[in-house]
User: Fold these one by one.
Assistant:
Number 1:
Amino acid sequence: MDFSSKLKELRQQRDISLRKLGEKASISYSILNSIENGRFQPSKEIVISLAYALRVENVEELLVLAGYPTTSSTDSE
């Protein structure tokens, strides 16, 4: 799954509109729409803002989906 699909899934699970999410994360509707449709690569800061706005516990997972390497080197196998 890519970041845009995960973002849409999380947003819909929480029954929140793009506009409302934008307000919570301080990100414009047009940027969010472009991210969700795969036309814009979000910065690390945007991913983190969205994670907090959506109350995501595993921010690292979203960062990886968005193409940012994890900062921890501990992987459980």
Number 2:
Amino acid sequence: MTNIVKLSQWDALLVESLRKGHGWSDDEIIARVKAGADLPTDDSIFQFNYSDLAAFAEKEPETFESAVRNGYQIKYNTVRGLRSWIWVAFGDEPQLELEAGQEAVTAQLTPEQLERLRMALSFGWSIEPVEGAAGSYRIEPIQR
């Protein structure tokens, strides 16, 4: 089994935006980002700069390619970053709870999305089903 590579939350968002938002295949992401040419301009609220991802791919090509092809774990998630990752990766904006001591993200997830989230989520988070809401999960830090 291949060791899962770790990406920053920002690099993970960049990869997912190319995959979901631009519809690029894994091969296309790898080839175009490594070439550093013909990268899209992002006019979303995130204002993604794909040259950052190209710089990462140039510096750590094996890590980059493995992350795109085999998946990755995010090094460190924040509540807001997790909300953004779910939104970018799956196309649905989850609920964000920011009350002190109750910070969490609640999202509707398919079984496949839940598995991808489990793989990508950084250490220190729990995912629990929301009682009475099929397919809805609350994702929160284990320690606050």
Number 3:
Amino acid sequence: MYELLFWRYLDEIYLNNQEVYEALIEKQEVEGLAILQTEVIVNRINSVFSDWERVDENSWKNQKGKGAFQVITTPQSVKIDCYGTEGKTMNKLVEIMEEFKCPLYDPQVPERYDEMSE
């Protein structure tokens, strides 16, 4: 499994990304993060991946190739667990989240890919 996590900071706020990640994984509310329109985001993911099988409310499976992913939301975050998913598919998910001004935090590295990163 490869984990992708997304959130948006409120204006003029920037916190320790690893600490934010750990809090969000525990489903804790983090002061300084925006409330996301998670239903709109999931609908957008579903429309972009309309040719994938929607296994359940939060999971998609590639019928024409390899890979599957599951979307787990909190009011402040979107976590996408990728299972055997190709890089181009993960990039498409990252692009969708960028539409909502939520840059990728990659906990495997760990690094957040936004304008504050060096």
Number 4:
Amino acid sequence: MTLPDVDPARLEEEWSADKEVLASLAENGDRSDIVRAVDVSFRGSEPALDRLEEDAEELGFEVIEREEDEEGEISLFLGCEQTSDEAAIRALTKRCLQIELIYDVEYDGWGCTAETGLIS
């Protein structure tokens, strides 16, 4: 599958938000070199999310769950294992924005827990 080019302005907009999340993780003692579960979410129509769910594994993700909010908007949560360093998160965001273009869904961000390397 050929991945489309992402609008650089859109990538920078997302990267600005990503940097805030990374700063918050760092404040909580995160060691960005530790591989951990990272989830991403997409909103969209049922047929678009169905297609994305079918292709998730090919795109490097596993399906976590599908959720409907109070307004009836459906979100699909996907997960992968990776680090939270800047290069890895930037690559993840770019891949998600490419998915947004291919599947006609809306990328809604990523999340993970801070990993300190300490056993609690």
